[in-house]
């Protein structure tokens, strides 16, 4: 089979994406200052590129799968297929201005807008009926006001950097997260499409496991009915008789957030020898 060519995002989101691969059993090693990692799967080939470029490179068909934010897909109008939202690196694309610049002043002048998102910015600015001039930045957009720009349009996770630079948010333009995309050519190839769907299944199982734990416990025959009727499970609990016909061993998978309140409840329902396990993959 021809190798599936994967584009990995350079920068801050690289670690989250490669950690997902690692948790799925696919190890990626990138030597320092290199752009072509080694992958422990013979049918995968990877290259590291800036997130801004990944969508268009997929559209051109030289690569099959890529990971980047939906903000850059929309910014570049890349014609690609979204496979899944990984939920990583959630940010908002916002318009922000200096604290002492009021809304009336914004609409009484030509506004200089500094941004990496020129296309997204101009689409939003047109809806605001503002006179504006956009200046493309290449990082550190928040330092432009007030000397070199009246407004910035930039991504933020918490808003802390904006506050520290004396800026206030006037509008949220869009929300973004890291997602998995594929080229249309790859999805039209049965073998590549199958491999892409297999990767998606692995990633979904890893992400599902992050939010769940397995609980294993014993219960006597006398308390069995009370216990199984009072516990949640993905479907039905796994039940096996104990040695010597002395009761039952029960396994359930539950949300990690449920465990703190569930454990005392299990104890009150007659569970003994309760164990909690971390999970690596969950395939419902």
From TrEMBL:
This is ATP phosphoribosyltransferase. It comes from Teretinema zuelzerae. One of its GO terms (biological process) is L-histidine biosynthetic process. Pfam families: HisG (PF01634), HisG_C (PF08029). Its EC number is 2.4.2.17. Keywords: Amino-acid biosynthesis, ATP-binding, Cytoplasm, Glycosyltransferase, Histidine biosynthesis, Magnesium, Metal-binding, Nucleotide-binding, Transferase. The gene is hisG. Residues 50-200 form the ATP phosphoribosyltransferase catalytic domain. Residues 209-281 form the Histidine biosynthesis HisG C-terminal domain. It is found in: Cytoplasm. GO terms for cellular component: cytoplasm. Pathway: Amino-acid biosynthesis; L-histidine biosynthesis; L-histidine from 5-phospho-alpha-D-ribose 1-diphosphate: step 1/9. Its main location: cytoplasm. The keyword Thylakoid does not apply.
């Amino acid at each position: 089979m021809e190798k599936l060519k994967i584009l990995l995002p350079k920068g801050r989101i690289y670690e989250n994406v490669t950690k997902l691969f690692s948790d799925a059993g696919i190890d990626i090693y990138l030597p320092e200052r290199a752009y072509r990692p080694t992958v422990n799967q013979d049918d995968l080939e990877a290259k590291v590129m800036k997130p801004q470029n990944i969508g268009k490179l997929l559209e051109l068909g030289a690569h099959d799968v890529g990971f980047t934010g939906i903000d850059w897909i929309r910014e570049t109008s890349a014609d690609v297929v979204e496979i899944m939202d990984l939920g990583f690196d959630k940010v908002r694309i916002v318009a922000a201005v200096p604290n002492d610049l009021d809304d009336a002043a914004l609409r009484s002048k030509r506004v200089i807008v500094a941004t990496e998102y020129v296309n997204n910015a101009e689409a939003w600015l047109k809806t605001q009926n503002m006179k504006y001039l956009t200046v493309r930045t290449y990082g550190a957009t928040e330092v432009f006001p007030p000397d070199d720009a009246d407004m910035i349009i930039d991504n933020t996770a918490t808003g802390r950097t904006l506050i520290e630079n004396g800026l206030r948010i006037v509008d949220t333009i869009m929300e973004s997260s890291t997602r998995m995309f594929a080229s249309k050519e790859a999805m039209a190839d049965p073998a590549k499409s199958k491999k892409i769907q297999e990767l998606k299944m692995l990633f979904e199982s890893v992400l599902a496991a992050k939010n769940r734990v397995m609980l294993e416990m014993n219960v006597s025959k006398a308390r069995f009915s009370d216990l199984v009727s009072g516990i949640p499970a993905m479907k039905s609990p796994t039940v096996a008789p104990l040695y010597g016909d002395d009761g039952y061993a029960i396994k359930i998978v539950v949300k990690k957030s449920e465990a703190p309140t569930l454990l005392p409840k299990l104890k009150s329902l007659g569970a003994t020898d309760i164990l909690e396990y971390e999970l690596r993959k969950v395939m419902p």
